[in-house]
Amino acid sequence: MEVAQSVQKFKTFWKVYLWCLSYLFPYKKIFVLFLCLSMFSSVIPLIISKMFQHFIDHILPTKNLNNFNLLIVGIICIYIFMLLANAKKNKIGIEFQEKASRDIQLSVFKKVRDLGFSYYEQHPVGKTISLFTQEIPVVQGMLRYFIPVILESSCELLLSFIFLMTINYKLTLLFIPCMFIYYLSGPYFERKAISYKEQYSKLVTEVDKKQYDSLSAVLELRVYGTEKWDLKNLINIAQESSRIFSRFFFFMDMYAVMRRVAIYIGVVILLLVGYSLVRAGSLTIGEFVTFILLFYQIMFKLTVVMTQINKQKMNVVNATRLYEFINLSPHVKDPDNPVKLKDVKGKIELKRISFGYNSDNVVLTDIDLVINPGERICIVGSSGCGKSTLSKLLARFYDPLDGVITLDDTPINKLSLKELRDTIGYVFQEPYLFGTTITENIRISKPDATIDEVIQAAKAANAHSFITDLPSGYDTFIGEKGSRLSGGQKQRISIARVFLKNPQIIIFDEATSSLDNLTETKVNNAINTLLDGKTVISIAHRLSTIRKYNKIVVMDKGKIIETGTYENLMAINGRFRQMVDGRELNNDEV
Ligand SMILES: Nc1ncnc2c1ncn2[C@@H]1O[C@H](COP(=O)(O)OP(=O)(O)OP(=O)(O)O)[C@@H](O)[C@H]1O
């Protein structure tokens, strides 16, 4: 069982690691150039140490000035070459590292958008934000620092070992016991550090999520006087996360200590063995000095590579989460060969639709409904009966479990999502407003709209007068999520958006619920006159102006139980009549 788990972990590691490397692939040419320059820079210290060896073994004993001068000129030229090569290497290194880390950020951002509505409804926002604050910087760090350092240092090590083997292979083999000492306890500390790092990452995500929730619910917490309780919860998670971080740091530190111990022991052994080889005449003094110089350098590089590899393993923990996120497939997908509709008329048909957010909780059952082009229908029913869910299926925020929805007799899953959503305008009960100006907020439905078009749309939504009363009119900044506006004002901005977009089908999901009766009547009149010829689907809690709809659909427990005009439904004396008679809704609102 443990072996199978280890194999699985190993496979996951490489899968994720190669995925990270794939971000360097578009820049492979400069990456190869970078590696070549790294190799070049790595050879130079070896040449220099060979010169030192020559200096000690041949120039010092003979005191030959010409040879000495030649050596100095040679060293200066080599250093100049090294400086130039390093400058070029650093320049191109930055180029591909920055481009690759920008690419990863963009691909995560694109994924967040592709996943769509169902993802946002099922996952806490704090968790998604944590991808940007935690996981992306780690993977960017891998691309910017770890991967180039490991590759560069590995090249350098390989060349150094070959070089040392040519001087004295016995002394070179001394590196093996030194590394053995390092690895004797290293893996233990490493495993511990990785496990604490995993726990720490999860806790940081929790803290992010909690902070987001606390900020979003600041009003509710104040109203219920539970701010202290909320703060205590946050502090508890934050304290636990810093405790885990200290543990992680301790084990990382122990790991570094073992590295130093291995180097110190190595130096002592090198002196003992090297001295006996010099005495036996199988090693010159110059070679011995070269060895000592390179020993520090190589041991340092070797342990750097190993530490970086271990850090990479820890980083792959974060990268795995990003990898899993990037590989999530959206529940609602674009068709491979979308059908293009000519002149959308706006006929919608639902045939035997069933749907549930999860398989054991069916929200809609056997829904059959035809909405003709230009028809205005109103969906009513008790809270939680599935009205909004039904409207979400029309714009393919979700796909039904069973049945077909057609637009102008074409199944909507055969249309591109863009075309479908260009055809349907949606006004939500709680619209999202951006923390920018009124104009920009209205314009999001048609970014190239002129200011005149924006004003016309605002007038139609009965928003113009309150907008012009604001200090900077249409240029007024409305605060985070439109916090400086009332619920009704926000709804009117949202309605203005849909007027501006002017789609063939419009869905109002309790879009006028925050308006007072007078404003609601005005907005509904605008809907009636401006949306002439458009298909309108309205979900209503209050039954004001309901008589104006061509068809009323009454829902109960996920089913359509009555359909007809206001007069028909009143005449059949069924559920709708009960609602109108005030047993469920206020009669005077009709
Ligand atoms: N994202 C979701 N995930 C899981 N269940 C959901 C989700 N959204 C709604 N539901 C459930 O589906 C059922 C129908 O919800 P829906 O919002 O469609 O009702 P509604 O008729 O529009 O209610 P209301 O009039 O109160 O807005 C409810 O039981 C609700 O809890």
Automatic annotation (TrEMBL):
Residues 348-582 form the ABC transporter domain. PROSITE patterns: ABC_TM1F, ABC_TRANSPORTER_1, ABC_TRANSPORTER_2. CDD domains: ABC_6TM_exporters (cd07346). GO terms for molecular function: ATP binding. It is found in: Cell membrane. SUPFAM superfamilies: ABC transporter transmembrane region, P-loop containing nucleoside triphosphate hydrolases. This is ABC transporter ATP-binding protein. It comes from Paenibacillus gansuensis.
